[in-house]
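Format notes (please read before filing issues)

Several people have asked whether sequences and structure tokens are stored in separate files. They are not. Every record keeps both together, in the order shown below: the sequence lines, then the token lines. Line labels are part of the format and must not be stripped during preprocessing.
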Amino acid sequence: EGVAFTGYLTGISLLVHGSVILGAYLTRDGQWASIGIADGEGAGAKQSTDIVDGTDGPSPWMISSLVRGILLAVTATVGTNQALFKYITARQGEFATHRYAAIRLLRGDDPFDSMREVWQQINVPPVTIALVYTPWALLPVDVAQAGWGILHISAIIGATVLVARTFFGSRIPPDLLAVMIVLIFSVYEPWRDTIWLGQPNGFIYLFLSIGLVMAMRNRWFLAGVCIAASLVFKPVASWVALYVILSRRWSAMVGGAVAGIGMIVITLPLAGVNWWWVWITRKMGDLALGNALHSNISLQAVHARLSLVSHAYYDANALPSLPLSGVLNGLMLATAFMLVLALTRRSRPVSDGIGMGLEWSLVIALSLTTSPLSWVHYSTVGIVAFLVLLASTRAPDWSWSPRGVRVAIGTVSLVAFALLSMDEELFLVRTAYWWETWPMLGSIPAASLPLLVVAISLRLWLHNSWLDARSTHDGGQKAVISP
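Then the structure lines:
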């Protein structure tokens, strides 16, 4: 009911705002400068309500003040319902479990709860328990859950605002940005899933967003620090680390190494060498095997299901050795590696923000696609890719690209977003009846991540081709494909 109510209010909010924009366009008497919506050069685009060509007459944007106030009120109502009433007060079971692991660590007990089944144990490394969850173990449980929820939602909102402002500048008004964020909260399953469970993906999303901005500003040391910080929570974006290695971003490697080793050393007195040894020798191998559980949308899980019966969708145990799956996984990893080499190993000027954003988005999408475990909520970080793809439609090379390719990229991106936004639990309830006859039907949501990789790869290829064509026309030679 909460989600339906949220969607209803969000629909009203979008309808009102869209009506204002459409009304302004249809009733214009000349060329109007909109409030934060007119195209401008960079983040400093001028915002004005004056008529550009001097034509007399009331500006249609004069009616927007009241409407925008109503819009923000509706958005606040939706946000309150979505965050305060639904998510901050949720059980956040995963957070509670990891907080209790920190309590056991403080007592000197086994933080992994190793007597339970492997996927019911704590599987994060000791540095994560010590650094991320121990501070919350010192607080009363109700205070800890509310505090975690508030900070988590703030991290998601902050990351989205940061990426949107970086790629859209001041062209996107605050109220429209607010509506966009609430809409994503309403329909994007990974966001709702991660907050409901109390998973830390919002913080990973924030650090990856800051890392992208630092990379765009050529501050690679800080970008490396942000990558290391995101990996401490969970290795959701492991290919980002591989990307900086393959592109020979030495300062990023140094920053990541300093931050990563520093966090391990600082927490070692609490985490203990013994628990590190347990995690490395007993747990890393099980994690690398993955499983075929229905909420795992990685390609490795899909490959395994080709050799398993439909009951595998309910089996949380580690996967057995499957020859077909092993071959397909090898081909997948080789293809991903070639994509990174072919599309990202080239020199880019600092001004090529779209190119850098697409590279960052590609390795994030590859991380989610190729990982042994990609629970739906891991795709919280995928919003970076969707925002960059949307922003890239305003880049000069977009209109230069063939229309058919543009339509294909847009369609594939929308389908990927729709599949990720699918309520995974509801999909299970509605379709599980047919899984015994058509086992791969349950893997439909997993098509989202490969489609996202295809969309980003095509868009980055178009962007690189345009840069090469412009370089050939202007300088007589193509851009050097080296870092």
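For reference, the curators noted about this record: The longest helix spans residues 141-168. The radius of gyration is 24 Å.
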